[in-house]
Each structure stands twice: as structure tokens, then as C-alpha cells.
Automatic annotation (TrEMBL):
Residues 31-436 form the Glycosyl hydrolase family 13 catalytic domain. This is Alpha-glucosidase. It comes from Coniochaeta hoffmannii. The keyword Lipid metabolism does not apply. It catalyses: Hydrolysis of terminal, non-reducing (1->4)-linked alpha-D-glucose residues with release of alpha-D-glucose. InterPro entries: GH (IPR017853), GH13_cat_dom (IPR006047), O16G_dom_2 (IPR045857). One of its GO terms (molecular function) is oligo-1,6-glucosidase activity. Belongs to the glycosyl hydrolase 13 family. It comes from the Eukaryota.
């Protein structure tokens, strides 16, 4: 691609002009999970100098934009998705100067850098929350969502609503000091900010966004972007899980009444003046009609979003049954691909292409067959072909390009470090139902977020080249690292890595058919073949 300007002409191999399009439509994005990519100082935790040392690897692969998962100061209750200071770097990742150096290194190569913007919630350790919880009349009290308790007929204290959080348990935590509950859609360590408060919104724009854009980064992947506006009546959700006191309630706090107003404001006030690219994470929003308003160019909200129907295949639901694995036929994968490929046709919206991220198991283990080296290789290449031909902006996740697989099923539950995995496991154990524990463990072995978070496999040296030999990586290195790694695949024409290196230039060359094409699914009910074609737009 090579174009750094706002727009560039999209031409196909036969010089057919597709039109002037924003640069990010043709860009290949690559997500780095910094704790697990490359450790430069032997503390077993990946860091920014480590990323910098591999920037040419990404450049040569054909990556245009690097997306770094959160690197900010954090107590790491949820791997940095709990930020305690948006302007400081979590020390094990390095320094702010390291981020500047990475930004420059990207720009020198014609690449861009985007950061993860986590502003639905902060950490409980953030100064804003410390102030907010200190007294009911603190000026920042209303920057978070505080509610009084309810009491049942026996005088027993109850949370304000019956909502279940993503990480099991209630969305409310009682705070002794001021005797009120605060809301957290995720862990108790992640209190939700109150976007209805205009001062709070201004502080977010200034403190978390302009600060980084002023330092030269190119945009944001925006975490949980559709949860800033909640319904304000705070009522119980209908009981859909009679076994639990806490009920899934996304209709209460997702895509709420002011959400489009907030996102438009964020764009006008911050993103647009900096010409920053935005890709929002849009969970619990599975209908095209709901998604389009977020990505319509005329609506001036987000450039792109991640819609999760396909990547959630196999999960029970987003809540209590998430890790009760649900097998699915190929026709379901095909139908979802078709829906989310075509939903922008005839509109001014745009779509994204991805099959992995840090919140899901490895695609080759979920959608492929890893029972033999040959089937593993063919599966990973099939996924590569599928992803690199689809319409929209392409997002790759670290390790996808070498076919990294899920952690072995022989590993015990102790190797699962993620807060979500631990809480679901604990919830099952507490239920006293052995079959539930077994089902959850089985589901985690396929779907857990941990699988994508183990150290990146660079070479055959001890610790897979992720960190120095003898160091203790924060997550266990996969047993298969001597077989699956970058060094082994580089230069091997039959490898998955070289297949990606071949496909990405082809995607560019035939961008009128792939990135900008019209996807047409053929033979939709065939459970053995996935056949599709593209037409030029
Ligand atoms: O995820 C938001 C989210 O709601 C999910 O889609 C996520 O996959 C999770 O597993 C829900 O069960 C984002 C981040 O990507 C995730 O890593 C964080 O844990 C979460 O926000 C909270 O910040």
C-alpha cells in the first residue's frame, strides 16, 4: 500500500479505478498482545523494546498498522484492561520514550501505530475512582455509577439490580465507606465510568485520547465502545437463568439511549481533528441494522467495528453458559461470513475481517483440524486463504501467521491465568455440580482467552525465543514450540508463514475483488465445502 496520506486511489491489476478510499480500508492491521510478543529484558513479560526489535518482521510480513493491546499503568486485574493511569506505561512494558520510539519506527517504515482505548471503565486504582469513592459529595462522585442498596423482606441487603457481570457474579460491588454499590460490567476491579456526566467525558477525551494523539499515535482500537450509554431506569432483567441470582442484561447497558450521541461527540471533538482511525469493539450487537449506524460514513461515528457473531461460534452465550461448548456445522460459519461480508453492500459503511484476537481460542484449533501436522498446516492455510480474500479491513492476531494452536488439553487449570477463565471455573466449582465443572473445563480447553495469550513462538531456543533461556515466562510456553515457530517457517515455501507472505501482496494486487469486492456465497448448505466468489463492486 505505502500510502500515508488520507486517501489513495484504489486500482486493480487491470487499472479499473475503484475510487478514492480512506487509507485504512486497504490496510492490514496486526494485533500485538504485548505481554506475550517479545521480552527484551528477561523478566518473562513482553515489552515495547521487544516489539521494536521485531518491527521489521511485521513490515516484511506486509503489516500496515500495529495495534497494541493496553500498555498503560495497571494493577493487571484484567491484563491492562483495567487502567490506573492512562498517561503512564506499566513499567514492565517499558517507558513512554519506548512508545515514542515505536511510533517513529512504524512511521519510518510507512506503518502506523494504534493503541487500545479502554474508557468504559477504569481500574479501582485510578485517581478518579479513588476520589469518587471517597465521599458522596466528592466532585467526581458522579463520574462513576453509584446506587443505594435494595433490601428484601427480611432486611437482607441486595444489589440495585439483578444483572450478571461478564466475569460471573453481580455487576455491583458494595462499598463500605459510603454505603452504596458501584457498577462494573466486568470485574469488581473495573468500575464503569459515567458517560452521562459531561465533565467525565471531557476528561476522558483530554486525558486518555488527546494525550496520546499529541504524541503522534494514529488512532485507537476502542474497547467495549457500545457500552458507554446505559439505560437510566436501572431495573431488573428478566430471569433467563433460574439457577443464578444474576441475570444476563445486555439490553440494560449495551447500545443505550445516548450511545450514538457520545460516539459522534468523541469523533468530532477528538478523532476528527487528528484524523485518527477508529475501530470499535461491538459485542452483544448481532444484527446488521444495529451495527450500520456505527459504521455509516455519513453518521460520522466509527470507521470500523468488530462484530462478534463469527468469532463467538461454539460459545454458549456471552454470559453464564459462555464456556459450555456448542458444536456448530460449517454451514453456520458460512452463513455468518456471508451476513457480515454483505451487510454494508449498498451503504456507505465498512466491514472488518478477523478470526482471532486476545479474547478467543486459536482459530486453527476451533475451525480446523490439528490432529496431524499435515492437517494442521492445511487447516491454517485454509483459514489464511479465507481471511485474506474477504472484503473489509483485515486484522491479524499475533501467531495466526504461523498457525499457533490452543494450549494442550493435558495442561491443568493452573495454566489458565485469565480472570474470566478463573471466575467461570470457580463459579462451576462453587455450584458443587461435577458435571458443570467438567463442561466448563472442556469449554475452556477450546474457547478460553488464555490460548491466544501464551508466548509467541519465534524459534527453537528454550522459551521459544520469546524471552531468554532460563527466564520464567508469565505464561507457559507451548510444548510444540520447536515445531511451530517463525524461524522454522521462514524460507520454507510450504509453510503457513510463507503462505501469508504470498497472500498479502495478492490481496493488494486484486483489492478490487477482495478488499473491495462483493462476496457471493455458493452452495450454502454444503457441509463439506466452503465455496464463494467475488465480483468487482
Ligand atoms: O472485551 C469486551 C467483551 O465484552 C468481550 O467481548 C470479551 O471478549 C470478553 O471475553 C467477554 O466475556 C474487552 C477486551 O477485549 C477484553 O480483553 C476485556 O476483558 C474487556 O473488554 C474488559 O475491558
Amino acid at each position: 500500500m505505502g500510502s500515508i496520506g488520507d486517501f489513495h486511489a484504489v486500482t486493480d491489476a487491470s487499472k479499473c479505478l475503484v475510487g478514492k478510499v480512506p487509507w485504512w480500508k486497504d490496510a492490514v492491521f496486526y494485533q500485538i498482545y504485548p505481554a506475550s510478543f517479545k521480552d527484551s529484558n528477561g523478566d518473562g513479560w513482553g515489552d515495547i523494546p521487544g516489539v521494536l526489535s521485531r518491527i521489521d518482521y511485521l513490515h516484511e510480513l506486509g503489516v500496515d498498522v500495529v495495534w497494541l493491546s493496553p500498555i498503560f499503568e495497571s494493577p493487571q486485574a484484567d491484563m491492562g484492561y483495567d487502567v490506573s493511569d492512562y498517561q503512564k506505561i506499566y513499567a514492565p512494558y517499558g517507558t513512554i520514550e519506548d512508545v515514542d520510539a515505536l511510533t517513529s519506527a512504524c512511521h519510518e517504515r510507512g506503518m502506523k501505530l494504534i493503541l487500545d482505548l479502554v474508557v468504559n471503565h477504569t481500574s479501582i486504582e485510578h485517581e478518579w475512582f479513588k476520589e469518587s469513592r471517597s465521599s458522596k459529595d466528592n466532585p467526581k462522585r458522579d463520574w462513576y455509577i453509584w446506587k443505594p442498596a435494595r433490601y428484601d423482606g427480611n432486611g437482607q441487603r441486595l444489589p440495585p439490580t439483578n444483572w450478571r457481570s461478564y466475569f460471573a457474579g453481580p455487576t455491583w460491588t458494595w462499598d463500605e465507606l459510603t454505603e452504596e454499590y458501584y457498577l462494573h460490567l466486568y470485574a469488581p476491579e473495573q468500575p464503569d465510568l459515567n458517560w452521562d456526566n459531561a465533565d467525565c467525558r471531557k476528561a476522558i477525551y483530554e486525558n486518555t485520547m488527546r494525550f496520546w494523539l499529541d504524541r503522534g499515535i494514529d488512532g485507537f482500537r476502542i474497547d467495549t465502545v457500545n457500552k458507554y450509554s446505559k439505560r437510566t431506569d436501572f431495573v431488573d432483567a428478566p430471569v433467563s437463568d433460574p439457577t443464578s441470582a444474576h441475570q444476563p442484561a445486555p439490553e440494560m447497558w449495551c447500545n443505550g439511549p445516548r450511545i450514538h450521541e457520545f460516539i459522534r461527540e468523541m469523533r468530532q471533538e477528538v478523532l476528527e481533528p487528528y484524523n485518527a482511525v477508529s475501530v470499535g469493539e461491538l459485542s452483544n450487537t448481532p444484527h446488521p441494522a444495529q451495527v450500520l449506524p456505527y459504521v455509516s460514513a455519513a453518521a460520522k461515528e466509527l470507521d470500523m467495528v468488530f462484530e462478534f457473531s463469527m468469532i463467538r461460534l461454539g460459545t454458549g452465550d456471552g454470559f453464564g453458559a459462555k464456556y459450555i461448548y456448542q458444536p456448530f456445522p460449517l454451514s453456520r460459519l458460512k452463513a455468518l461470513t456471508s451476513t457480515w461480508q454483505t451487510f454494508v453492500e449498498g451503504t456507505d459503511g465498512w466491514t472488518t475481517v478477523f478470526c482471532e484476537n486476545h479474547d478467543n481460542g486459536r482459530a486453527v484449533s476451533r475451525f480446523g483440524d490439528t490432529s496431524s501436522p499435515e492437517l494442521w498446516r492445511r487447516s491454517a492455510k485454509t483459514l489464511a486463504l479465507w481471511q485474506t480474500t474477504l472484503t473489509g479491513s483485515l486484522f491479524l492476531y499475533q501467531g495466526q501467521e504461523i498457525g499457533m494452536v490452543n494450549m494442550p488439553t493435558t495442561w491443568g487449570i493452573d495454566e489458565y491465568k485469565d480472570i474470566e477463565s478463573s471466575r467461570f471455573f470457580l463459579e462451576a466449582v462453587k455450584s458443587g455440580d461435577a458435571s458443570r465443572v467438567e463442561a466448563i473445563v472442556g469449554g475452556l480447553q477450546i474457547l478460553a482467552r488464555d490460548h491466544s495469550r501464551i508466548p509467541f513462538q519465534w524459534d527453537t531456543s528454550p522459551n521459544a525465543g520469546f524471552t531468554v533461556p532460563g527466564a520464567h515466562p508469565w505464561m507457559r510456553v507451548h510444548d510444540n514450540y520447536r515445531d511451530i515457530n517463525v524461524a522454522r517457517q521462514s524460507g520454507d515455501a510450504s509453510s503457513i508463514l510463507e503462505f501469508y507472505r504470498t497472500l498479502l501482496p495478492l490481496r493488494r494486487k486484486y483489492r478490487h475483488l477482495f478488499t473491495h469486492g462483493l462476496f457471493r456465497l455458493l452452495d450454502p448448505m454444503n457441509e463439506a465445502l466452503f465455496v464463494y466468489m467475488f465480483q468487482s463492486r
